[in-house]
Amino acid sequence: MRITIHEIQAMKTRGERIPMLTAYDYTTAKALDAAGIPLILVGDSLGMVVLGYASTVPVTLEDMLHHIKAVVRGTERALIVGDLPFLTYATPELALRNAGRLLQEGGCQAVKLEGGAAIAPTVRRLTEAGIPVMGHLGFTPQSVNTLGMHVQAKTAAAAQRLIEDALLLEQAGAFAIVLELIPAPLAQAVTERLRIPTIGIGAGAGCDGQVQVLHDLLGLYTDFVPRHAKQYRRLADEIRAAAGEYADEVRRGAFPTRAHSATMDQAELQEALRRVADRGAMPDANP
User: Fold this and answer.
1) pLDDT at 52 over 90
2) What is the pTM of this model?
3) Which of 97, 112, 89, 104 has the alpha carbon at shortest distance from 22?
4) Is 15:9 a contact under the CB 8 Å cutoff?
5) CA angle 229, 211, 118 (to 5 degrees)
6) pLDDT at 222
7) CATH (residue range 5-236)
8) From CA 128, how far away is CA 47, in angstroms rounded?
């Protein structure tokens, strides 16, 4: 059975920290599910770490569907949240149609969208239709062209707006809210004022949970490590080393060995070669 939004909310009530990670493919999702990660985000961050775009803006709904389907196939227990990409929720009705596709076709159990007061009516429309919604405040990557990539809500006025936005999203029916790149004291203040869980990324330890882009955690994306990320492994180095060893062995003729190859009865091979020789250089297209 999959974890539900109610179980995620109960984790906040119990004071149990909530780990969340991104995944974009079947194999990785399977590993995260086996590790007991309760929340998996198929984020539009795939635009950068999987598709090679400079930002999340070019990611399409079809891109999201493709990757959500793979992640859902690789999991049995985790609650899968799919990002609604840029401009796919510009109106409540457009959001309803596109979010419905992520659940019906993609198979995820919830969607995530960015913004505060302006999208509260959209959140309400989706939740009233039975679509669980995770909010996203602070630095919102789809608005990178207007916000820039830096810590948000550092002034009293901006912090007030963020708190009010969080309360509006909760009132609209969001089951959780991601807080990205905001001051840790502000994130803690928001968390204390909400009944629903907050999931931080670059927002300090006062949130109910944390989310990281898996490629940052594993050292797969680039050599740059964001301030808000912790690199638990450097798998890019391991991949480069393995690929280098493979290429060297192929060039030297050290791979494959007999252990990596199949054999056949020599008599059968000789009979096949005799038959080919008897038929001439060109095989008959209509034997």
Assistant:
1) yes
2) 0.92
3) 112
4) no
5) 115
6) 65
7) 3.20.20.60
8) 30
Give the span between the Cα atoms of 211 and 178, in whole angstroms.
Answer: 8
Structure tokens at 84: 């609604």
- What are the residue numbers of the active site? 180
* Distance of alpha carbon 179 from alpha carbon 190, whole angstroms: 9
Binned at pLDDT 50, 70 and 90, residue 58 comes out as: very high
Query: What is the average per-residue pLDDT within 233-260?
Result: 95
For the chain, domain boundaries = 5-236
Which of 94, 166, 106 lies closest to 135 in space, CA to CA?
A: 166
**3-state SS string for the chain:** CCCCHHHHHHHHHHCCCEEEEECCCHHHHHHHHHCCCCEEEECCCHHHHCCCCCCCCCCCHHHHHHHHHHHHHCCCCCEEEEECCCCCCCCHHHHHHHHHHHHHHHCCCEEECCECHHHHHHHHHHHHCCCCEEEEEECCHHHHHHHCCCCCCCCHHHHHHHHHHHHHHHHHCCCEEEEECCCHHHHHHHHHHCCCCEEEECCCCCCCEEEECHHHHHCCCCCCCCCCCCCCCCHHHHHHHHHHHHHHHHHHCCCCCHHHCCCCCHHHHHHHHHHHHHHCCCCCCCC
Are the C-beta atoms of 120 and 144 separated by less than 8 Å? Answer: no
pLDDT in tens, 199-242: 999 999 999 999 999 999 999 976 777 788 899 999 999 999 99
d(CA 190, CA 122): 21
Tokens of 238: 């391991």
* Structure-token match 């090679």, residue found: 52
Confidence band, pLDDT 50/70/90 cuts, at residue 144:
confident
* pLDDT at residue number 224: 73
